[in-house]
């Protein structure tokens, strides 16, 4: 007896500024990270733009690596951004701006996670709902004009 198989389509969306506005939440976390480092290190700190550049480079590289905790690529996972902030902190310590402290990394990771707080994700990008409805209607065979 053969089983009838139903073909299903899988859609994966990158929400960041595609369906919901989120770039600013990353910016807010980066500013909180900078303020936190300023509290730790005082005025002996690189400019925010430099820290942002370090973080962008580290984050992009991290996206290609495997998370040792999960065995999966960081890719677009929630762990990537907070981990990139921690690695930026490690990088800055390595440059002589501060002394590495494991307790500090826990706070920095929490700062990175704040990017994903539901309170920030209430506003859809203009026409996002239209696009999602179009895809849904097409999938279930409704005509969409």
Intertermini distance: 41 Å
Q: Which structural class matches the secondary elements?
A: mainly alpha
> Poorly predicted ranges (pLDDT <50, ≥5 residues)?
none
On the 0-100 scale, what is the average pLDDT?
Answer: 86
Q: Count every beta strand, where a strand is a DSSP E run of 2 or more residues.
A: 0
Describe the protein.
Helix content is 50%, strand content 0%. The protein contains five helices and no strands. Helix 2 packs across helix 3. The longest helix is centred in the N-terminal third of the chain and has 19 residues, at 23-41.
Structure in a nutshell:
By secondary structure, this protein is mainly α. Helices cover 50% and strands 0% of the residues.
Q: Topology, please?
A:
Blueprint: H1 23-41, H2 48-62, H3 80-94, H4 102-113, H5 128-139
Helix pairs in contact: 1-4, 2-3, 3-4
Task: Provide keyphrases for this structure.
mainly alpha; 0% strand; elongated
């Amino acid at each position: 007896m053969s089983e009838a198989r139903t073909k299903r389509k899988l859609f994966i969306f990158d929400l960041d500024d595609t369906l919901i506005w989120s770039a600013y939440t990353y910016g807010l976390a980066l500013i909180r990270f900078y303020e936190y480092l300023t509290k730790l290190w005082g005025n002996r700190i690189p400019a925010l733009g430099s820290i942002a550049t370090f973080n962008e480079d580290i984050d992009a590289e991290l996206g290609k690596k495997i998370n040792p905790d999960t065995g999966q690529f960081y890719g677009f996972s929630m762990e990537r951004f907070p981990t990139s902030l921690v690695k930026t902190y490690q990088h800055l310590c390595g440059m002589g701006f501060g002394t590495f402290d494991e307790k500090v990394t826990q706070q920095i990771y929490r700062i990175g996670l704040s990017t994903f707080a539901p309170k920030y994700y209430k506003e859809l990008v203009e026409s996002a709902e239209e696009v999602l409805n179009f895809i849904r209607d097409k999938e279930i065979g409704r005509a969409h004009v």
